[in-house]
TrEMBL record:
Gene3D superfamilies the record matches: 4'-phosphopantetheinyl transferase domain
Residue ranges of every copy of the 4'-phosphopantetheinyl transferase N-terminal domain listed in the record: 27-109
Pfam families the UniProt entry points to: AASDHPPT_N (PF22624)
InterPro entries, sorted: 4-PPantetheinyl_Trfase_dom_sf (IPR037143), AASDHPPT_N (IPR055066)
Organism, as annotated: Micromonospora coerulea
Name used for this protein in its record: 4'-phosphopantetheinyl transferase N-terminal domain-containing protein
Length: 198
């Protein structure tokens, strides 16, 4: 899908369930993302990060007309310079935000300038009101903070989850899609023949 110049901005929010994570998604990540996957001990955290990074690349690739593994993602932290910052796509007009919690991974994409921040949280035992307030604060922070941000409370992507979006593009339309079919299916993954030999 090639990028069409557009006069109205649209934000698309791509949701997937954690159950679609599979080891083949590691193949679309760059070496630093793979290192982070490999260093993450807790299985659910590892799956959430891998799925988030793979979904970000898959969405960006489809919007930039590139293979997911060819997308350049910069994760330099603006505070300390380490590789754990908010992902940006240098040299493109694509703004993205990633969030994962509980059973859900979500990526928001805005093409053509502007800021976007998305936050998903599993409510667990907490009062929904508290969780909503938390997601608002997180989404605003990810969208760069400050006044003039427009908030969108989006439909829960799974039971007992809250999803909130913030943007400085007040007129932007927001579309929420299930991104499961965008991801490479696990059947497409084959073990590297070299790795099977003992
Ligand atoms: Zn940092």
């Amino acid at each position: 899908m090639a990028v069409q110049p557009s006069t109205t901005s649209k934000i698309t929010v791509f949701n997937v369930g954690l159950t679609v994570a599979h080891v083949g998604l590691r193949d679309v990540l760059d070496h630093r993302e793979r290192q982070r996957v490999d260093r993450t001990v807790a299985e659910a955290d590892r799956a959430r990060f891998m799925l988030g990074a793979a979904l970000l690349r898959t969405v960006a690739g489809s919007m930039l007309d590139l293979p997911a593994e060819a997308v350049t993602v910069d994760r330099t932290c603006s505070h300390c310079g380490r590789w754990h910052g908010r992902p940006t796509l240098p040299g493109t007009a694509l703004e993205m935000s990633v969030s994962h919690s509980g059973a859900v991974v979500t990526v928001a994409a805005l093409l053509g300038g502007g800021r976007v921040g998305v936050d998903v949280e599993r409510t667990g035992d907490r009062p929904v009101r508290e969780v909503v307030a938390w997601t608002i604060a997180e989404a605003q922070f990810k969208a760069g903070g400050g006044s003039g941000l427009t908030l969108h409370r989006l439909p829960p992507p799974a039971p007992r989850h809250v999803l909130t979006l913030a943007t400085n593009r007040a007129a932007a339309t927001v579309e929420v899609v299930d991104a499961t079919t965008l991801l490479p299916p696990s059947t497409s993954w084959q073990p590297d023949p070299g790795r099977r030999r003992k």
